[in-house]
Amino acid sequence: MLKHKLGLALVLVLASVNAYSSDRKSSPACAGSTQDNNVLAAGLAHNSFDTFYRNPFGAVKTDQNTVRLRFRSCHYDIDKVRIRLWNSREKKESWVEMAWDSTENDPSLGPVDYWKAEINIPATPTLLYYFFEITDGWDINYYVDDNAHFYGGGWGRFSEHWDDLNTYQITVYEKDFQVPSWLKGSIIYQILPDRFRNGNKSNDPVNGNGFIFNKRIRKLEWREPLCDPRGEQCRFESDNQFYGGDLAGVLEKLDYLKNLGVEAIYFNPIFESATNHKYDTQDYLSIDKELGDLAVFQQLAQEAEKRDIRIILDGVFNHGSSDSPYFDLYYRWSPTAACRSTASPFRDWFYFPHRHNKPEDHNRPGTYYYCAGENNSRITYESWYGYFEHPVFNKNNREVRKFFFSGGSDSIARYWLRNGASSWRLDVASDVSKGEGLEPNDDYWMEFRKAVKTENQSAAIIAEEWSDASSLLLGREMDTVMNYRFRSALMNWLSDGCIGNGCYNGVYEDEDSNSFSTSGPIFPILETELEQRLKSIEEDYPKESWLSAMNLIGSHDTQRILFILKKISKDNASLAIEKLKFLTLFQFTYPGSPTVYYGDEAGLATDGVWFDSRWRDDPYSRGTYPWADEGLSPNADLIKHYEKLGQIRHENSVFKHGEYQTILADNVRRVFAFKRFHLIDGTPTDEAYVVLNRSMETSHNISLESMNPKNGTFVDILNGGTYRVNEGQLNCGAIRALWGKILVRLK
Questions:
Q1: pTM of this prediction?
Q2: Domain end point (choices 375, 394, 413)
Q3: Per-residue pLDDT tens digits for 229-247
Q4: What is the extent of the structural domain holding 618?
Q5: Residues designated catalytic
Q6: Where does 10-78 show beta strands of DSSP type E?
Q7: Range 637-643 contact pairs with CB under 8 angstroms and sequence separation of 24 or more
C-alpha cells in the first residue's frame, strides 16, 4: 500500500530523531511496530468528543451529509481498519473501510498512523452505532466504546472479541427540529398538588370516605407525618393518605414561585382520580374535585401567565385506572366497561388476555386479577409492571388514539392546551413507544406531536425517560426529556461514600440508584469522570433538546435530595445542606432547564424507609411543603439561596441560552470550571466563568485562561468582588471548599 511506503521513510527519520533505547521495556509502545499478526492495543485510539477524531461533534441533522471519523494505530502495525455501522431504523449493518491519513510522532507512543473515513448521514432520522475492526494479518481485534451505558463516547477501549453492546452513537435528527424557545433554560418547579399547599379547605378529602382500590380516605393534618404504609398500622395504605393540597393553594403561592425565578410549573397529574398521586386517571376531561375544577385551573393558568409562568401537565397515556368507567374492575361504574363485558366498546382499549407468555413477567408473583371472559371464563389483563390498578392501554387501537390525540380539537392532548396548559410531560414515555430510533414503525408519539403542534406550535413535549432518550429525540416525537442522567452524574460527583444500611464499600444503593437500574448505584467520581458523563449526554442529544432538558436532582420518583446527600455524606445532615447549595450552583448555571422538586428549596428532608433490604422512597419523598403558617419550619436561608440563583439566571441570559465549554476538570485539587458565552457572527461575547471547588476542606487559588486576552474586569455575582484579566489570565482568587464563584465580565 502507498501509505506504508511513505510511512516507512518517515518512521526512519522519526526513529533517528527520538533515538529510542534498545531496551524495549523503556521504549515507547509503538517503537518497532510491524505487521506481525499481532495488533498493538496501546496504539489504538478514537475519541468521539474530540473534533479531530469525529467532526462535527455530537448529534447531527439529516442534512449533514457526512461525518468524518479518524482512528489511530501504531505505525505500520496493521493492514486495515474498518468501521462497522448499524442503522437502528433500517436494522441494517454496513461496513466502511478507512484510508490512511497521515503518520505522526506521538510524544508518549512514538510513530503512529491516523486513518480516516467519511460516514454518510441518512436523510431520515435514525441512530447510527459504530465501532472499529482492526486487522493485522490473521489477527482481528476491535476498538469499542469503553462504557456505553454511563460514559458513552470519548475514548474507547481495545477488545479481542466482537462487542456490539459497547458502540459509539451518532444521533441523526430532523433538520428542521426546534424546541419552543421559552422552554430552553427555563427554571421549572415540580408540584405534587396534594402536598404543596391547601388553599381551599372546602374541597378537602373527607376521612373515611371515598373508594381507593378497596380502601378509604385517610385524611391527615398538614404537619402530621405519613402513616407508614410498610408499618403495622397502615400496611399497604400509601395511595389513600391525603393532606388536602389543591390548585387554589398553588394559585395562592404564585408570587412565591415568581420570587424563586420559576418560569414553568410541572404538575403531577391533576385529572379525576381516586388516589393522592393521581397516576390512575378515571376521567381525563375533568380536574379532580379534591384539587378544584376547570374554572380554578383556568384562573391558575391565567394568573401564572401574567407572571410569565407556564403550565406543564402530566400526561399518563400508557395506562389508566382499573377503577374507572373505561375498565371497572370493581363493578362500580358500568356493565359495558372493559373488564365486565367482552362486548364492551372499551374492550379493545386494553390487552385481553395478558399479552405476555408468563403472567409473572409483568404481574407481581402470586397476585392475579381477572376480568370477564368468553363462556364465563376469567382472564388476566395487562397491567403496568404488575400494578393491578393500572391496566395498560392498547396504543394500536384507533379509538384509543382518537381519544388521546387524533380525534380533533376535543382530544385530550389538544383540549387541555386550549384550556390553559402550555406543555405535556409524558409519563413512562418509552413504555408507550421506544421512539422512532428503535421502533420506526410505531408512529404513536409522532402522531401525538402532530396533534399538539397543530393546537399550539409553542407547546413543548417532554418525555419521562431515565436512561438515554435519544430514540425519542429525533425531531418528530419529543422535544426534550427529564434528565435523570444529569441527576445520576451529579449525585456520583457529590458522593463521599456512605455508612449504614444501603452502603457497601462506600457505594450507596436505593430503589432507583442500584446495580440493576438505569441510573446505577451512587459512588464517588472525580471531576474528569463528571465531565465524561456530562459530555456523553451532550453528544447524544440534539442541541435543542440538550438546551431545554429538565435538569432535575429529585422528583416524586426519587428519594429527597437532602436524604440522598446525607447518605452519601456519611449521614451528615448539615453537610447535606451545604452540598445542596453547592450542587445548585452547578445546576443553575449549566445548560438546560434547572428543575426544582417542591420543597427542596425549603429544606424538605423526609427520609426514606429501610424495608426489605432497600431504601424506599415512595411515598416518603412526597411530604408536605413546610409552610410556617401550617406550623412547620421552612429553611429561610436555603430559600434565599435559590432566589439568588434564580435572579442570577434571569439577569444573565448567557446562563439560559449561552454556549458551554468545560475549561478545568482538576482531579487533584477537586476543581471544576466552565465558561458560558454567546456567539455573535462567530465571535464570543458576554463570557461568564463558573468555578467550583469540590474539595471538602481546602480552599484553592484558581487562575483561568480568558477567552478574550485583552485586559478586562469580571465581577463575582455570587459572592461579590472584582477580578481582572492580566496577560490573558483571569485570576479568580481563593475559592473556599465546597463553594464557587460566578464571574461575569463587567460592561
A1: 0.94
A2: 394
A3: 999 999 999 999 999 999 9
A4: 188-316+525-556+577-648
A5: 427, 464
A6: 54-55, 60-61, 66-74
A7: 638/577, 638/580, 638/581, 638/601, 638/602, 638/603, 639/260, 639/601, 639/602, 641/581, 641/584, 641/601, 642/260, 642/261, 642/584, 642/596, 642/601, 643/259, 643/260, 643/261
